[in-house]
Design brief:
With 219 residues, the chain is an alpha+beta fold. It has a single domain, classed as Class II aldolase/adducin N-terminal domain (L-fuculose-1-phosphate Aldolase, 3-Layer(aba) Sandwich), CATH 3.40.225.10. Helix content is 43%, strand content 15%. It has 8 helices and 7 strands; from the N terminus they run αβββαβααβαββααα. The protein has a 7-stranded mixed sheet, sandwiched between helices. β5, α5 and β6 form a beta-alpha-beta unit. α2 packs parallel to α5 and α4 packs antiparallel against α6. The chain is globular.
């Protein structure tokens, strides 16, 4: 990846995120890593309005913002801390999906419901409500990001990570679909969930492993 391709890819997935209704207006933020730098959405911009040259370059070890850049997202610490604790993370998508937020207001558990959730996401972490944009929230999310790729922020939103933006973005969609299925099914009766054995069986399928591998390699 080059800086130019990272900026183009961020612009593409920012607009996908808005098109799918995962954020509204200037809500949410996304970033991608290139070496020791990350490229993050600027503060106050609606994601669909960000042009490739407007993504803010931030040095991950120091937190220094590149000269001449506009102000980075107010959640800059959350992104920085996650990249610092887990070198496998190459992209972060933070959104405010309706069903995911609704779920966190009534539960701090999202059971395993269907194969895509088991294969692409796995166990989902929860972080209790903390005032957004604070270093307290950033630290709590980073702690979860060491071992989880999807983190629900109670009464706030969702953070997903990936080896590229495509993977992080699709995890966002799968978690939101999982929350939607759970909320709809629970309104009728307690839903059937995958057993631990069924969950592990999905993760062990060669076909699922191949699909995830392709996802990690593609834009």
């Amino acid at each position: 990846m080059t800086e130019a391709s990272i900026r183009e890819e961020l612009t593409l997935y920012a607009r996908k995120t808005v098109d799918k209704g995962l954020v509204v207006g200037p809500g949410g933020n996304i970033s991608a890593r290139l070496g020791e730098d990350m490229y993050l959405s600027p503060s106050g911009f609606a994601l669909e309005d960000i042009e490739p040259e407007q993504w803010v370059k931030v040095h991950i070890p120091s937190g220094e913002v590149a000269a001449g850049s506009v102000r980075p997202s107010s959640e800059v610490l959350m992104h920085l801390f996650c990249y610092r604790v887990n070198e496998a993370i190459q992209a972060i998508v933070h959104t405010h999906p309706v069903y995911s937020i609704a779920l966190t207001t009534i539960s701090q558990e999202l059971p395993m419901l269907f194969p895509d959730q088991a294969a692409l996401v796995g166990d989902i972490a929860f972080v209790p409500y903390v005032v957004p944009t604070t270093d307290v929230l950033a630290k709590l999310v980073a702690e979860k990001a060491e071992h989880h790729n999807s983190i629900l922020l109670c009464n706030h939103g969702l953070v997903t990570t990936g080896k590229n933006l495509r993977e992080a973005y699709y995890r966002t969609q799968v978690v939101e679909d999982s929350a939607k299925i759970y909320m709809i099914a629970s309104s009728v009766r307690p839903p059937r969930t995958l057993t631990e054995a069924e969950y592990k069986e999905i993760q062990a399928l060669e076909s699922e492993a191949y699909r995830v591998q392709l996802l990690q390699q593609m834009k």
